[in-house]
Amino acid sequence: MNYNVGIIGCGLIGNKRAKALEKFSNSKLVKVCDNDLARAKELSNKYGCEFTKDWRTLIRDKNINLVIVSTFNNLLAEISINALKNNKHVLVEKPAARNPHELKKIIEVYENLNKKYKIKVGFNHRFHPSFDKSKEIIKNEKIGGVMFIRARYGHGGRLGYDKEWRAYKNTAGGGQLLDQGSHLIDLSRYFLGNFEDARGYYDTFFWDMEVEDNCFILLKTKKGQIAQLSASWTQWKNIFSMEIFCRTGQINIDGLGGSYGKETLTFYKMKPEMGVPDKFVYKWDGPDISWEKEYANFILSIENNEEPNGNIYDAYESIKMIYKIYRGGKNGNFFRYGKC
Question: What are phi and psi of 185, to 5 degrees?
Fold first, then answer.
């Protein structure tokens, strides 16, 4: 099957998605859209496709059968719903909505259409090589199940960051908890499954904005596994770090490439006699191909009529956790996982 693709939102992520399409002979970018017409025209010139300022025009285009939605958070759900209703497969960037209520509306439309048109959420971090390798190690190295995870993700913004769209609650839906925090929660679920309990603190320490610039999260599964997570917009040196602790081994993932540093996985395997563990180091120096791998997974899910890796249900489970922490307020009230 061939895919005529439309991209709505021509910023940094929209450009990354467009570049990833170049690797697929069965996919062609035919139209792009942005409310900044100059930005839409720039991307259209690069790929020789049509452009528009009206996203409704794009999703009504019968020549398009797959839509990528990379807009501000306040439009993600509305556009996704309308794209599904117009018989399009949809790849929508995380968090897919501002809150669980918006996301649930997407699910209702998806299921009412009998899942004929697939929808995937852009959790591209799942497709980084370090996470593929981690899954392989846990499966093959006989180090037991995952006991707990500890992770940090952050950057320091830039001049004027408090005036950008992420700084406004109505547009973004939330701050760093919803932004990079959603990646940390999704990756933790990727290894541990659903969480039952949540405790969180968040506050605005530095930036003059409506939303939080830091969050501190503690999650617990029904089996008692823990994820201890921190996301920051005051991390003056960009960082990504995730440590996965198993019964007899530990996996450390550092960096995601670019400003976050070289992507590196260090595996420590405990010996039967314990003492100093064996150490194995893996490094990836090449370009970030997670966007291509994620798109390939989406196409495969369409053709096999199955849920993709990082689907709308994964996004719903993550955003419910985020919403419970927001409802708890800055004082970190405890919430039991359940219906919102």
Answer: -65, -45
Query: C-alpha distances in angstroms, 183 versus 231, 244, 287, 303?
Result: 10, 15, 20, 27
Q: Percent of the chain scored above 70 by pLDDT?
A: 96
The answer to whether residue 241 scores a pLDDT higher than 90 is: yes
Query: 162 with 254: CB under 8 angstroms?
Result: no
Question: Is pLDDT above 90 for 336?
Answer: no
Phi, psi of 6 (to 5 degrees): -120, 140
Distance CA 189, CA 217 (A): 13
Cα–Cα distance between 194 and 183 in angstroms, integer? 14
Beta bridge partners of 306: none
How many whole angstroms separate alpha carbon 224 and alpha carbon 150? Answer: 15
325 vs 327: CA distance, rounded Å: 5
- Percent of the chain predicted with pLDDT > 90: 96
